[in-house]
Structure to design on (249 residues):
């Protein structure tokens, strides 16, 4: 009976192909069978949970396969677009890409752990995609970061990023100038450049890439041929890097 019940659930939820297994029943037989199904599920609700688990596993597998195809189709733009910040070891044997928003809580949670991973490993190439999606302050943060990258270079960008990822107030011209001056940068030049078309073009390009990749949240990581949506603990990230190197050997 359990196998028959699971087949019936599959017919209803998982695939219309299974529906042909029940097509030879008369209307009376189908009514009786459905009554039996209902009674069985009420007595054995764990069967329903088992079917839901199977469905979730299939959906996860399909999502992973789709994500792999998206990564493969857009790999060049992901890892070497010519404009995104590249940190860590530029010649590293593994490339880690992160789509980030400075106002994202999980990006903030991941920031220190990603930095530790890169620092302790020493052979990871790290690419940051500016992907502001959480409002005006997110966009302002990314504009400031990209303008700094263009005008002052990657080291200044990296230092500014450490500030932006932890800053919880509202950015104003006054406090942005103070941060830039503290770094020894030309604040007026960078602030005036924030609305330059080149800054807008970089942020727009990342949004277009994210749309192609069906990325709607941050952080999202690309590691090897895999896409990981959401926060990943440091230990798991290390395991993924180790596995990638093992596969590449």
């Amino acid at each position: 009976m359990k196998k028959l019940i699971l087949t019936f659930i599959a017919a209803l939820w998982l695939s219309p192909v299974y529906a042909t297994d029940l097509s030879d029943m008369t209307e009376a037989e189908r009514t009786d069978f459905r009554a039996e199904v209902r009674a069985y599920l009420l007595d054995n609700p764990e069967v329903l949970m088992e079917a839901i688990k199977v469905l979730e596993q299939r959906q996860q597998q399909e999502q992973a396969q789709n994500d792999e195809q998206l990564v493969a189709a857009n790999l060049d733009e992901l890892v070497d677009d010519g404009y995104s910040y590249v940190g860590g070891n530029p010649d590293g044997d593994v490339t880690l890409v992160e789509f980030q928003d400075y106002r994202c809580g999980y990006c903030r949670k991941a920031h220190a752990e990603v930095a530790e991973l890169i620092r302790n490993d020493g052979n990871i190439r790290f690419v940051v995609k500016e992907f502001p999606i959480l409002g005006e302050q997110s966009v302002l943060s990314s504009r400031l970061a990209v303008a700094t990258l263009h005008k002052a270079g990657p080291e200044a960008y990296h230092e500014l990023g450490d500030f932006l990822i932890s800053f919880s107030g509202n950015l104003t011209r006054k406090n942005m100038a103070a941060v830039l001056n503290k770094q020894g940068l030309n604040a007026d030049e960078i602030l005036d450049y924030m609305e330059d078309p080149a800054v807008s073009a970089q942020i727009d390009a990342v949004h277009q890439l994210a749309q192609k990749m069906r990325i709607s949240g941050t952080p999202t990581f690309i590691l090897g041929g895999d896409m990981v949506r959401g926060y990943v603990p440091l230990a798991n990230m290390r395991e993924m890097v180790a596995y990638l190197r093992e596969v590449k050997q």
